[in-house]
Design goal:
The complex is a heterodimer of chains A (about 350) and B (about 110). Chain A contains one helix and 30 strands. Chain A is mainly β. In chain A, strands 8, 9, 10, 11, 12 and 13 form a six-stranded antiparallel sheet that branches. In chain A, strands 3-2-1-30 form a four-stranded antiparallel sheet, with no helix packed on it. In chain A, strand 10 and strand 11 form a beta hairpin. Chain A starts with a helix and ends with a strand. Chain B has three helices and one strand; from the N terminus they run αβαα. The radius of gyration of chain B is 20 Å and the shape is elongated. The chains are: A mainly beta (about 350), B mainly alpha (about 110). The interface between A and B is large, with 55 and 46 residues. Strand 11 of chain A pairs antiparallel with strand 1 of chain B, so a sheet runs across the interface.
């Protein structure tokens, strides 16, 4: 009996170790206009800035947290989080092949590839006409440093969610929500938005922010979808299995993006206010006006006690998750629209 | 009677079948459909307009915080520089719009 208990304790300790590396500290990686700001979550101060020359629209950490990918419309920058330096710049734009990286890049689960959505306009030399193919799902091999595959995807595919237990598939957040095979390019609709299931309302969804962290994450991608009947649906995608669940909101709060608490019980939303919603009931349990104004992205500390909303303007607001009490703000030297938390 | 679409049989004819953008004329439906016209799933920009009963009323507040993020493929391209193509690099004029907005009297086109 004692042996069994000891085994259980050892197993629990090992699992916890997988969740939070021993002695790891939380940092916010906030890439914005021309600078990446790195914030120490213990002191809530910027401890380092990394310079580049770009307007950043997306970001994502790798699954092991060792790399942080940030992208402007034309380039992807690879940041080594151990040294906090840019170790590679991937440029896809040329005058004749105008490639825009539409949304945040998504690293594959094995870390070998980077998935991206591209909007491409091809120009013919000395001919005043352009060719506009459909948007592309692109697989970029990070070791070979080349695009190895690309597939047509529907317009307005703006987020990629890799599935941890099924690396052959990703979830694409598009006009509808799709399960996409990265080997064949085939996809199936798992939830209609522009083309809803019979009897269901059309759903409007601004899917730009995939707020997640490599460790101590809920494992759920939450997304707010607004129905043509005036409803709010929380779309919850299990990042491990790709399974989709929905919760109807009791109140129609207005969000840019959402993040789930590490235990998956609550969802926090931000725009001009911050909200805390119980996912068991869809009820708003706390809300507060954001004193610094609109914010786009969210992050939580590993212990789930502090919520960060921002940037948008040149700051990030800090909140106590238990009460949604405003703690203060972290000034930045730049605007931005995305951020991630990495523990190291 | 269903009308079958003509298909090109040689290279020149097939080239004509490509969807091509000759300009931004409204009569060219492909231009409208093929351009990235919005971020949301049903192209309803401005969906977040929030009729609050109290401050802040209306849209996001303060709106300056939204300025640079609206410089992409959608939202209000007439009011903000198009940072994808026409004014790529305009952000060098102002790192933070609320603080540096005076530097943006005119967006400078950078080649």
């Amino acid at each position: 009996m004692l042996t069994k208990s000891m085994f259980a304790i050892a197993l629990a300790t090992a699992l916890l170790g997988l969740c939070v590396p021993a002695g790891a500290k939380d940092f916010l990686y906030v890439p914005g206009v021309n600078y990446l700001s790195i914030v120490d979550c213990d002191t809530d101060t910027v401890v380092k800035t990394v310079e580049y020359n770009d307007y950043v629209i997306g970001c994502s950490p790798s699954f092991d947290g060792k790399y942080f990918y940030i992208n402007g419309w034309r380039n992807v920058y690879v940041v080594d989080t151990r040294t906090d330096t840019i170790v590679d710049t991937l440029t896809f734009w040329s005058d004749l092949s105008r490639v825009n990286v539409v949304c945040s890049p998504a690293p594959s689960v094995d870390g070998n590839s980077l998935y991206m959505i591209w909007s491409v306009v091809k120009k013919k030399l000395n001919v005043p006409r352009l060719t506009v193919p459909p948007w592309q799902f692109v697989i970029y091999d990070l070791k070979k440093k080349e695009v190895t595959k690309s597939f047509d995807v529907p317009w307005n595919t703006t987020a990629i969610i890799p599935i941890e237990k099924d690396p052959e598939h990703v979830i694409l957040m598009s006009q509808d929500i799709l399960k996409f095979n990265v080997k064949t390019g085939k996809y199936t609709k798992i939830k209609g938005q522009l083309h809803p299931e019979e009897g269901q309302p059309m759903l409007n969804n601004l899917i730009i922010w995939v707020n997640w962290a490599p460790t101590s994450d809920s494992g759920i991608f939450p997304s707010p979808a607004y129905g043509s009947d005036g409803s709010l649906t929380y779309i919850l995608i299990d990042r491990k299995t790709g399974n989709l669940k929905t919760v109807t909101g009791e109140d129609v709060n207005v969000y840019y993006s959402l993040i789930c608490s590490p235990d998956g019980k609550y969802v926090y939303g931000c725009m001009d206010e911050v909200y805390k919603v119980d996912l068991a009931t869809g009820k708003t349990v706390a809300k507060a006006l954001a004193p610094r104004g609109t914010t786009y992205a969210e992050a939580l500390t590993s212990d789930g006690k502090k919520l960060y909303t921002g940037p948008s303007g040149n700051d990030i607001m800090v909140w106590d998750t238990a009460t949604l009490k405003y703690i203060g703000f972290i000034p930045l030297k730049h605007d931005g629209i995305v951020m991630s938390r990495i523990s190291k | 009677m269903k009308r079958n679409r003509l298909k090109g049989v040689n290279r020149k004819a097939k080239r004509l079948e490509e969807r091509e953008v000759f300009g931004m004329g409204l009569d060219q439906i492909d231009v409208i459909w093929d351009q990235p016209v919005g971020c949301t799933s049903i192209f309803d920009t401005g969906w977040e307009t929030n009729p609050r009963p109290a401050t802040p009323m209306g849209n996001c507040a303060p709106s300056a915080r939204d300025f640079t993020s609206c410089a992409g493929p959608c939202w209000w391209p007439a009011q903000t520089p198009d940072s994808m193509t026409n004014f790529y690099g305009f952000q060098n004029q102002c790192l933070a719009i609320e603080r540096d907005w005076r530097n943006l009297n005119f967006a400078i086109k950078i080649k």
